[in-house]
Automatic annotation (TrEMBL):
Basic residues bias locations: 37-46
Name listed for the protein in its UniProt record: DUF4169 family protein
Region of interest (Disordered), ranges: 31-64
Phylogenetic placement of the source organism: Bacteria, Pseudomonadati, Pseudomonadota, Alphaproteobacteria, Hyphomicrobiales
Species name: Rhizobium bangladeshense
Length: 64
């Protein structure tokens, strides 16, 4: 193969790997946020406080 093709393939592969790494990092951050939120909910329930949420926003009925 010629050098341009190999270099192009390497840079494309590196770009794909970088995107995959960013996706994994974002997913890990979301998982940490979710875990933290769930832990706060459990602690609130244990201490007898009400949940911060009040049902699902999409399930609320319009009270007009």
């Amino acid at each position: 193969m010629n050098d341009k093709t190999e270099t192009g393939q390497k840079s494309r592969k590196e770009a794909i790997e970088a995107q995959a790494k960013l996706r994994r990092e974002r997913a890990a951050e979301k998982l940490r946020e979710n875990l933290s939120r769930r832990k706060r909910q459990v602690r609130a329930r244990r201490s007898g406080q009400a949940d911060e949420t009040n049902g699902l926003p999409a399930a609320k009925m319009d009270e007009s």
